[in-house]
Amino acid sequence: SVKRAYNFNAGPSALPLPVLQLAQQELTDFKGTGMSVMELSHRSKEFENVLNHAKETLTELLSIPDTHEILFLQGGASLQFSMIPMNFLGKDQVGAFVLTGAWSEKALKEAKKVGETTVVASTKEENYRSIPTLDRAALPSNTAYLHITSNNTIFGTQWAEYPKFENIDLIADMSSDILCRPIDVSKFSLIYAGAQKNLGPSGVTVVIIKKDLLKRIPANLPTMLDYNTHIKSNSLYNTPPTFGIYMLSLVLDWIKEQGGVTVVAENNKKKAELIYSSIDKSNGFYTPHATNDSRSLMNVTFTLPNEELTAAFLAQSKEQGFVGLAGHRSVGGCRASIYNAVPLEACQALAAFMDEFASVHA
Ligand code: PMP
């Protein structure tokens, strides 16, 4: 059997072992072509099949309606921070942003370079430990779109329920929680996600876009930054990240084999509960960063009583085979990223380690 780390990296992060094994098996001869997917022409029938299969599987897993189109782009979620305002923030309009962490701030920063923006809610003052409530009255009448970050990778918070306002185009950065639970895609005008957490390797970004929106795109955008370019060419305008799309298609197949997003969500809930319960029963030894109603299923953030204990926790956890548990500097402490591909057993092992460490050092 293969020796696998308990990988709690924030992204790039764990991939399902069966996916890696299948990719390994197909590496030198993909479906009788005598070559790997990396060596196929992106114009070949074989690759087109891979790409279309990925689209079909994602459509099935998220019940994506006909009103929406799927794109596979490059430039990471970070390029979407710029493309979204370039394509959809009109001259007399305002981009409305909810600030729930560093990634929302970055999305806002890029939109500001393109046009008018406003912050309609923020929890920055409490170091982003919760998701704010949102008032329709805060949205300007000329709102171009409302932008949210569905899961805040660094702070470990996640929207429990998405804002619902009629006639407001909702755009969500789902980089760190896409496919972690069922969502109603029809409520979103655009969803984007870098692949390197729940979808596959880095290098490919999934965009799910409502076709209605495309008519708002101004003329004369740089070709590569215009969503219409990629829509018209089925994400094959130029050479796409072919291997990344292939890996993504295998990850989607794996989710389907698990029983789909509902089953994966149940498993994610169990995984998160294990670690949150170690925090909650520690009598204050571990302090959660997120408030209870904003806790993330994907990134569990917590601090220890002091720097020495944090260092000891990280050192000992490393010795026992846990990887990626250091928190981001803006929160400190620890973070366990428990994306879809992190197995329940890894979370059980971490919870046991946390309980043991607390009992010795509390
Ligand atoms: N948004 C969120 C929520 C993220 O977690 C990240 C990456 N950690 C990004 C955006 C940036 O993604 P990329 O590196 O793909 O540009």
UniProtKB/TrEMBL annotation:
Spell out the InterPro entries in the cross-references: Aminotrans_V_dom (IPR000192), Pser_aminoTfrase (IPR022278), PyrdxlP-dep_Trfase (IPR015424), PyrdxlP-dep_Trfase_major (IPR015421), PyrdxlP-dep_Trfase_small (IPR015422)
Q: What is its EC number?
A: 2.6.1.52
Keywords tagged on the record: Amino-acid biosynthesis, Aminotransferase, Cytoplasm, Pyridoxal phosphate, Serine biosynthesis, Transferase
Q: How is the cofactor bound?
A: Binds 1 pyridoxal phosphate per subunit.
Q: Which part of the chain is the Aminotransferase class V domain? A: 6-349
Q: Which residues carry this modification: N6-(pyridoxal phosphate)lysine?
A: 197
The enzyme's main class, written as a single word, is transferase
Where is it predominantly found?
cytoplasm
Where do the annotations place pyridoxal 5'-phosphate binding? 77-78, 103, 153, 173, 196, 238-239
Q: How does it assemble?
A: Homodimer.
PANTHER family referenced in this protein's UniProt entry, alphabetically: PHOSPHOSERINE AMINOTRANSFERASE
What is the name attached to this protein's record? Phosphoserine aminotransferase
- Native species of this protein? Priestia flexa
